[in-house]
Amino acid sequence: MGKSIRAITMGCSKNRVDTEHILSQLDGHYSILQEADVREFVDYELINTCGFIGDAKQESIETILESVERKKRGETGKVVVFGCLSQRYAAEMPGLIPEVDAWFGATDFAPLLKYLGVEGDGRPGRLLTTPSHYAYLKISEGCDRRCSYCAIPFIRGRHRSVPMEDLVAEARSLADRGVKELIVIAQDTTYYGLDLYRRRALGELLGRLSEIDGIEWIRIHYSYPADFPEDVLDQMADNPKVCRYMDIPLQHIADKVLDNMHRNVDGAWTRALISKMRERVPGVVLRTTMIVGHPGEGKREFGELVDFVRDARFERLGAFMYSEEEGTYGAENFKDSVSAKVKQQRLDELMTIQGEISLEFNRSRVGTEVRVIADDYSDGILVCRSEFESPDVDGEILVRYDSALAGDVDPYSLVGEFLTVRITGADEYDLAAEIVSL
Questions:
Q1: Which of 85, 222, 277, 279 is deepest in the core (most CB within 10 A)?
Q2: What Cα–Cα distance (Å) separates residue 52 from each residue in 151, 213, 246, 350?
C-alpha cells in the first residue's frame, strides 16, 4: 500500500458511521492513519463535515482550513471534503475554499470512493473508529419530520430504513469482532420501519439484536416523542440487554414554541410521555436536549421550560441556542426576535438548574454497586460507564485501579471488559468508584 489516508469526522455519531463504512472499503488499498495523528504526512486527508447549526458549520470550516494549511506546508497531499456541509452548500464551498481538491455530498459514497480509486458504495463493512467493544448502529437515513428549525431533511433526504436482516447481519459481524455494546442511532430511531414494513419496528429490531451472542448492551439514541412506540418501553423494562437509558430530544415544553417548531406534540403530551416512561421502566435514565430562544419563546414560555426541567428532573440534559438556518421553515417564516444576549442568559440559567439536578442524581448513586464496562485505562484510573452513561455525551465513572482488589490483573486487559464497582463519590458530571469484583 503506497498511499496513506486520514479521515477526520465532524458532528454526530451518524457521520462517524458513514466514515467507518467508507474506511472499510479503503482498507487494503490505503494505509489508514489515526485521526488524531495530524503530524504525520498523508497523501489524502478526508474530512466528513457537519452542517446542522452555526457552531457546527464554523467548526467544520475551521477544520477544512487547518487541513488546507497542512497541505500548503507539504504535510498533506490532497484535501477531500464530504458530508452535510458540502451537501448543503455544494454551489458555494468550492469557490470559498478553492484549495480543497474535491467536494462530495453527504451520501456521495460511490463517487467519493471512485475518486480515491476504489469501487464501492460505502455501505458494506465497518472499520471502527470507536474503541473495539462498542459501535454505533445506524438503522436509517434521512428524516420525514419537518421541524421548522432543522435543515436535516433537505440535507439528508427522506427517511429510509435499513432492512432489518441487514442490520442484524451487521450487528452479528460487529459482535464477532468483539463489540459488546450497540448504540442504535438515526435521525429518528422511533420512525424505523414505517417505509419498509408499514409499522414502527424499533421494538422488534431491539428484540432481534438482543438475540445475538456477544451483544450485552443495546442503547437507544435520537428518539422522537410524537407517536412513540410503546413496545420499545416493554423491551427496555423486560429485556436485560436493552439499557434503561433513553435519549429523547424534546426541544421545548411550551405549546406556542412547540407549535412554531412543528414538533407535532404539545406540552401535555410530552409530560404524559415522560411520566409513562418513568412508570413503565423503573429507574430509567432520560437524556434530552432543549432549544432556548426559538421564535415564540417569550419570558412566559421560557419560564414554563424552566419549571418543566425542574419538575421532570432529567438525569441528562443538553441545550443550545436557536440558530436561524437558511432554507428552513423557521428562517423563512419567523423573525429571530430573541437577542443573542438573552439567548445566552437563558442558556446559562437552564444549564445551571440542570447542573444542580445532575449533581443530586449523581450523589444519590453513592454507595450503590453497578455493572460497568471499561472504556480506557490511564494513570491508575479505569474510565468506565454503566448502562446509564453513553460515550461522548455523558459523564464517566472513574474507577481507581487497586491491584489487590483486582487480583493483580493487568489493568490494560480490563479495557472492554465488564466489572462491578461501588460508587464512592460524585460531582456534577462524573462519578468515582472502586472495584468490587471482575
A1: 85
A2: 6, 37, 22, 22
pLDDT digits (tens, 9 = 90+) for 122-174: 666 899 999 999 999 999 999 998 999 998 888 888 999 999 999 999 999 99
Strand, helix or coil for residue 414: helix
| Per-residue pLDDT tens digits for 192-209 | 999 999 999 999 999 999
Instruction: Give how far Cα 433 sits from Cα of 359, 360, 365, 376, Å.
Output: 16, 17, 10, 15
Cell triple for 250: 424534546
Chain centroid offset of residue 117 CA? 31
HEC profile for 185-240?
ECCCHHHCCHHHHCCCCHHHHHHHHHCCCCCCEEEECCCCCCCCCCHHHHHHHHCC
Other beta carbons within 10 angstroms of residue 329's beta carbon come to: 16
Q: Which three cell numbers stand for residue 86?
A: 458540502
283 closest CA partner among 317, 237, 241, 228: 237
Cβ contacts of residue 405 below 8 Å, gap of 6+? 434, 435, 436
